[in-house]
Amino acid sequence: MSSERLEALQDEYASLYETMKSKLENQLPHHHGEEKKRLIRDVERSTEEANLLLQEMEEELKMAPPTYRGQTLSRLRGYRKELDAVQRATQLAGQLGYSTRKDLLGPPEPWGAAAGADRDVSSVSAQRTQLLQGTEHLGRTSESLARSHRIALETENIGHDIIDELGTQHDQLDRTHGRLVDTGENLSKSRKILKNMSRRLVTNKLLLSCIIILELAILGAVVYLKFFKNKAHGDLFTLTK
Fold it and tell me: What pTM was estimated for this model as a whole?
């Protein structure tokens, strides 16, 4: 499925729809007889072609991604409504044309040819009014569909903006999560360093205590040897003498 193919089909449908709409609104009300029948047949053939184009679009969309499929299906529904309005207007024009021929070719009225002609003119005028009303309704339907299509496009743009904003926020959350993970790793390393420093501090305290005890022992030995041992030797020398 290629977007170029779908766009080409939509452009072809739009051109065909404008042609049908122009024939119904601008040409058909001003023609009668065979020319009117020819225009109706042309519009009917165009509606068949437009229906085939819509079916081809639906087949192409079956292979489209879900997001693209949703936004294009809304357009197809609008196209379907447009085509239904054209078909109704065409059927109405055909029925009015048949009624006009019946009035013109039927048996004369009992009130005379002049009265019958007046009624024929009045009937044709009423039918033309109905046809114009039908084409006006078709125009209003087209405008309503155009507004709906514009609103759908605006809604689609808003949806894209929201998706982009959510994507940006997701990226920011990912970066924040990454920074938190890095911070957690740094805290773990800091705790290990503090534990090592604490063990080293305890070890240094023990070594310092041992050194102090050893120095005190040496000092005590020196004092003992210097004072007490010399005194004992002097006393012994005195006794011997």
Answer: 0.42
Condensed to tens digits (0 to 9), the pLDDT of residues 90-108 reads 888 777 554 333 333 334 3
Same domain, 236 and 133: no
The tokens describing 183, both together, are: 């911070």
Per the domain annotation, does 45 fall within a domain?
Answer: yes
Q: What is the 3-state secondary structure (H, E, C) of 123-192?
A: HHHHHHHHHHHHHHHHHHHHHHHHHHHHHHHHHHHHHHHHHHHHHHHHHHHHHHHHHHHHHHHHHHHHHH
* Among the listed residues 20, 188, 156, 158, the one whose alpha carbon sits nearest the alpha carbon of residue 90: 20
- What does the alpha-carbon distance between residue 150 and residue 79 come to, in Å, rounded to a whole number? 13
Q: List CB contacts of 31: < 8 A, sequence separation 6 or more.
A: 39
Q: Please, are residues 100 and 32 in contact by the beta-carbon 8 Å criterion?
A: yes
- Residue located via tokens 């609103």: 151
With contact defined as beta carbons under 8 Å apart, do 139 and 86 qualify?
no
